[in-house]
Amino acid sequence: MASTSRLDALPRVMCPNHPDAILVEDYRAGDMICPECGLVVGNRVIDVGSEWRTFSNDNATKDPSRVGDSQNPLLSDGDLSTMIGKGTGAASFDEFGNSKYQNRRTMSSSDRAMMNAFKEITTMADRINLLRNIVDRTNNLFKQVYEQKSLKGRANDAIASACLYIACRQEGVPRTFKEICAVSRISKKEIGRFFKLILKALETSVDLITTGDFMSRFCSNLCLPKQAQMAATHIAHKVVGLDLVPERSLISVVAAAIYMASQASAEKRTQKEIGDIAGVADVTIRQSYRLIYPRAPDLFPTDFKFDTPVDKLPQL
Amino acid sequence: MDQNNSLPPYAQGLASPQGAMTPGIPIFSPMMPYGTGLTPQPIQNTNSLSLLEEQQRQQQQQAQQQAQQQQQQQQQQQAVAAVQQSTSQQAAPGASGQTPQLFHSQTLTTAPLPGTTPLYPSPVTPMTPITPATPASESSGIVPQLQNIVSTVNLGCKLDLKTIALRARNAEYNPKRFAAVIMRIREPRTTALIFSSGKMVCTGAKSEEQSRLAARKYARVVQKLGFPAKFLDFKIQNMVGSCDVKFPIRLEGLVLTHQQFSSYEPELFPGLIYRMIKPRIVLLIFVSGKVVLTGAKVRAEIYEAFENIYPILKGFRKTT
């Protein structure tokens, strides 16, 4: 019958006799009623809920909603412009069948590029199944960069890809440059360049990557059992702690650790498979593996069940 | 003052009074206070491109500098601090290893007198908040070696690149790829880009004098081909130096503490890029301990930057 709405934040309407009472909203009459004394506080309050519900399987042209999409004030400066819809009567068409009033296009010309970029960001994020919070953060970063105008005129796609990379890093779930490359048309070099430019323009910095950030993703992509994944995490952590591979990138260390763990467990993976998932060349995995192989017994966790014992690990 | 008498007459106006630290003619030395111009100022207007004159001029400068150095040696003998002595022993072998190739001076090949400071004033490290503070007593015994000098000069006349490319030896010209003639000479081993406007870029030299000499050689080649080439506005644009601190460095620690200056992305580049504000130098620091310094216009900037970074790197030495 009546829907409750939280009005605590709004200081405007409250019952004068019972300031703490949460007002009950009667949507049929548009009234706010105090539940304690029954006083009608607000009268004919306009309901801001949506008028119609639209489902995705409905015919797109049949959308009867007269107010358009929900407002996105954080990003698009509050899109308050209106459009004239397609005509339905006979008078709206001229003799050739074209509609007379055609101005449906120019909505928010100043933010057109930004809206385009948001669409691109959403597309890229969908490809690697990124969460909504990362996409929101990316959109925010892009808006900041766009408003600053220091990188104006540069390819928006490159800025968008770099913002996506930074957002993933800031949320604590970094993606490698190669992973972002895979969903974007921009090359790794360009993304790297724009990454540095944006960090400078926004005057922020990001934390260093660690090996543990990538373990769960790579291991589940390889369908490794949980034990192998934990072993690989432990190996990578020990390798970095003992600094056995100082000059190699962390991703190569991760890949070599996964190789060692998978070879020691029942689910063995080849270097090529790991290289494909991690974006590392298999010679690189070989090089890093050679460096950690001598210390193999120390690297495994103590409670690891070896399917292949340590001395039988492949020596490359 | 016999110092004044040894100077040639045209430099009388530049001669400094006795005991002054800043010489009238710039002494070329590693730890000069930043700002004493090190590119040799042409005292006489040498616009003729004769190499013999150039070498004579260089030797004249060296002779003057030798006289200046001897003078300073005597003066600084009194002003030596005990602290300086310990560092001078370290720095002098490094410096004398460095300077002979420039001065060809005989006095430096003999061992420096014990107890004298080397031939330069005390290292002045500016204690600004932006520069990492350096204790005045410590100094690394390492001197960065210059690897590359990029300089530009204006030959002052329009050139026809096609004739230059056809008639000169060791010249390549591919107008579809790049709009300049690329010429190389063997001694000093350098490469020059010669543009049709008459401007020239000379790269690959290992010292300022070599860069100037090479630029003059290129200008001479162009002159011999029939163009009225001059030698205007020779300027060194960039100097690159490198050295080795001989211990491994913890780059992760360095990027954590010096976040506003450093950028370390192991996925993009294996070295840490440190942008020092004063002097404005970019340093590439690697895990192995090798350091590359670039972006300097004068040699002293490279030395100063290295002296600034060395104590920081020592703090991030890898202990294992």
TrEMBL record, chain A:
Ranges where the TFIIB-type domain occurs: 11-42
InterPro entries assigned: Cyclin-like_dom (IPR013763), Cyclin-like_sf (IPR036915), TFIIB (IPR000812), TFIIB_CS (IPR023486), TFIIB_cyclin (IPR013150), Znf_TFIIB (IPR013137)
Catalytic activity: L-lysyl-[protein] + acetyl-CoA = N(6)-acetyl-L-lysyl-[protein] + CoA + H(+)
Key words of the record: Acyltransferase, Chromosome, DNA-binding, Metal-binding, Nucleus, Repeat, Transcription, Transcription regulation, Transferase, Zinc, Zinc-finger
Keyword field contains Zinc: yes
Record-stated family: Belongs to the TFIIB family.
Biological function: General transcription factor that plays a role in transcription initiation by RNA polymerase II (Pol II). Involved in the pre-initiation complex (PIC) formation and Pol II recruitment at promoter DNA. Together with the TATA box-bound TBP forms the core initiation complex and provides a bridge between TBP and the Pol II-TFIIF complex. Released from the PIC early following the onset of transcription during the initiation and elongation transition and reassociates with TBP during the next transcription cycle. Associates with chromatin to core promoter-specific regions.
Annotated protein name in UniProt: Transcription initiation factor IIB
Organism name: Neovison vison
Source organism phylogeny: Eukaryota, Metazoa, Chordata, Craniata, Vertebrata
Gene expressing this chain: LOC122914309
